[in-house]
Amino acid sequence: MALTLYVDTARWRAHQQSVIQQFPGIVPVCKGNGYGFGHERLAEEAARIGSDILAVGTTYEAARMKDYFSGDLLVLTPFRRGEEPVPLPDRVIRSVSSVDGAYGLAGARVVIEVMSSMKRHGITPEELPQLHTAIENVRLEGFAIHLPLDRTDGMDAVEEVIAWMDRLRAARLPLHTMYVSHLKGEELARLRQQFPQTRFRARIGTRLWLGDHDATEYRGAVLDVTPVAKGDRFGYRQQKVASDGCLVVVAGGTSHGVGLEAPKAMHGVMPRAKGVARAGLATVNRNLSPFVWAGKQRWFAEPPHMQVSLLFVPGDVAPPQVGDELVAFLRHTTTQFDRILDR
Predict the structure, then answer these.
(1) Using an 8 Å Cβ cutoff, are 250 and 318 in contact?
(2) Are 298 and 313 in contact (CB under 8 A)?
(3) What are the strands, taking DSSP E only, across the chain?
(4) What is the C-alpha radius of gyration for the chain, rounded to an integer number of angstroms?
(5) Alpha helices (H) in the chain, listed in sequence order
(6) Burial state string for 112-124 with b = 16 or more CB within 10 A and e = fewer than 16
(7) In this predicted structure, what is the pLDDT of residue 282?
(8) Nearest-angstrom CA–CA distance, 52 and 84
(9) CA 115, 116, 117, 120: dihedral to nearest 10 degrees?
(10) What is the greatest pairwise CA distance in the chain?
């Protein structure tokens, strides 16, 4: 009995092709938990679509992925002096976001990240004059800019990239390749038209692998179903059941990422009101699970265990049977499945 990721493979790959067509020269991204699919599976998919390069998050991921993917590997986390050395082949390209970082990677293949409105990391305009000497002893693969997802001030993403292209050109730095993130297809087309001598390569993960939500589905197998009456005690903490019903044990617990949630940026009154309501229910041990039965998400009977979750199904609903599978709405980037099945 397992937490299973089902993939409608034909549909999933059709979506990949639609993204590839919008972004010529795409750089697939495989980082973290491999967007829920795992590193090995996404390496296979990147090779299948003929990609010559795959972006990963860290040097540790690059060390693992080198055995799965034979092309170039671009490490997105910038190099820092003093970091733990990880043995990597020459086909690994390092990101650099400081002049000092460029000096520290003599002989290496590097991509220079510039500071965007994200303000996360990158070379600043004031540092550009210092780059000429810093990049003399590296093999420069190009520049990169990582853009924000939302633009509340209305600033055009393309204009931000153009501003950096103008700065780099004015500083007489090579502009043969620019890696970009979080641009739309039409925005990339505008840049390619305006700068025909520069190759723009879009680094894409979420949109490529997770853009078609209906192509994938998580399901947890039902392991046990136990009838309970109001007042019965149950679980690790021996709480009392609030009403008649059934306790349902389903595959999928904290080790899978069930019950774990990243903080969300909320905009507007309604999302904030819902967040307040959820927080209020949690204070009285009422937490909605991601598992669905009879058309509704069911409440956790108690916090999820390591490998299973305990749900409560009220007495007026026919309970599932052992062996049934419950659909689970889980975040791909925080979920570890037991198995993956293509269909």
Answers:
(1) no
(2) yes
(3) 3-7, 27-28, 53-56, 72-78, 92-96, 109-114, 139-146, 177-181, 199-204, 216-228, 233-234, 239-240, 245-251, 288-293, 296-300, 308-314, 325-328, 339-342
(4) 24
(5) 9-22, 39-48, 59-65, 99-103, 128-134, 157-170, 185-194, 206-210, 269-282
(6) bbbbbeeeebbbe
(7) 39
(8) 27
(9) -50
(10) 77
Report the pLDDT value the prediction gives residue 150, as an integer from 0 to 100.
Answer: 86
Owner of token pair 């003599």: 106
Q: What is the pLDDT of residues 61-88, one digit of tens each?
A: 999 999 999 999 999 999 999 999 999 9
* Percent of the residues in the chain that have a pLDDT greater than 70, as a whole number: 92
Is residue 29 classed as helix, strand or coil in its secondary structure? strand
Q: Which helix (H) or strand (E) holds 71?
A: none
Tell me the one-letter amino acid at 172. R
Place of tokens 């067509």: 21
Locus of tokens 């500083």: 171
